[in-house]
Amino acid sequence: MANRLKGKTVLITGASSGIGRSTAYEFARTAASDLKLILTARRLETLQEIAADIEKNIGKGVKVYPLKLDVSNVQEIQGFVEKLPQEFKEIDVLVNNAGLVKGVAKAPEINPLDINTMISTNVTGLIAMTQAVLPIFLKRPNGGAGDIINVGSIAGREPYQGGSIYCATKAAVRSFTDSLRREMISTRVRVIEVDPGQVETEFSVVRFYGDKEKADAVYAGCDPLTPDDIAEVIVFTAGRRENVVIADTLIFPQHQAGAGGAMYKKPT
Ligand SMILES: NC(=O)c1ccc[n+]([C@@H]2O[C@H](COP(=O)([O-])OP(=O)(O)OC[C@H]3O[C@@H](n4cnc5c(N)ncnc54)[C@H](OP(=O)(O)O)[C@@H]3O)[C@@H](O)[C@H]2O)c1
C-alpha cells in the first residue's frame, strides 16, 4: 500500500477532529516515506497542531499544508485550488469528510438555521469541493485519474425520527456519489463511498450544541467504533490497485445492525 500511495497528494476536509483527523494520521503512517497532505477545516489552529505533530512524529517524508476552509461557504471553495502552494496543487485523493448533524428536532420544529447548516455543509459543500478538485483529475492522461472518497452514513440508507435533515443530506451524498461514478465511467477517476455506523467523535457533542453529558449518553452501554476504525477503511480504499474501486462500504460496531433502534445497549 505504501508503494501505491507514494508521492500522492491527499486533501481531507474536516481534518481537525474525529474521522478526518484520524484519516490524516492513517495516510501519513501508511505512506510515511513520501506523501503530501492538505488538511482543511474551520479550526486552523487545531490543523496547525496536527500538521506539526505529523511532521515531527511520523517523519520528514510527509509534508502537511493546513488550510482554513469552510465548506459551507461556496465562495471560499471557488478558487482555493489556485491559492494552494505549487507543490500541493496536484491533488490525487479528495476525502470529502466534513459534515455534521444539528439537533434531534422533528418537523415542524426543526430550526431553519440548523437545516441550512446541515445542507450547506454536508451536501452543497461536498459537491462544491468535488467540482473544485475534479478538473485537476480530468487533465490527467487516459481520461483523467484520482480518487473521490465521500463519507456518507448509515443515516443515508435508513432514515430515522429526529434525524430527518441529516438523513436527507446523507441520502443526497449517496445519490451524488452514485451519479458521479457513472459520469466518470470513461475515466480512471475512482468514486468511493464510506458509510460509518456509530463512531465516537465530536459528532454527538456538535449534535447537542456542546452538551457533553447528552453526547456521552448516546454511547452509554455500548462500544462504538473509533475514528481510527473508519480511517483504516478510507486509506484501504485509496490504497488499492488502480483498477479496483471499493465503490461502497458500510461499517458497524458489533452492537449495531441499522440506524435508530437497531442497536443493542447493555442495561446501565
Ligand atoms: N460519528 C459518527 O457516528 C458518524 C457516523 C456516520 C457518518 N459520520 C460522518 O463522518 C464525518 C466526520 O464526522 P466525525 O464523526 O468525525 O465528527 P467530528 O469529530 O465532529 O468532525 C467533523 C469535522 O468536520 C468539520 N466541519 C464541520 N463543519 C465544517 C465546515 N462548515 N467546513 C469545514 N469543516 C467543517 C469539523 O471541523 P471544524 O469544526 O474545525 O470546521 C470537524 O473536523 C461527517 O461527515 C459525519 O456526518 C459520522
From TrEMBL:
Keywords: NADP, Oxidoreductase
Top-level taxon in the UniProt lineage: Eukaryota
Protein name, UniProt field: NAD(P)-binding protein
Membership in a protein family: Belongs to the short-chain dehydrogenases/reductases (SDR) family.
This protein's record includes keyword Oxidoreductase: yes
Gene Ontology molecular-function annotations: oxidoreductase activity, acting on the CH-OH group of donors, NAD or NADP as acceptor
InterPro entries on file: NAD(P)-bd_dom_sf, Sc_DH/Rdtase_CS, SDR_fam
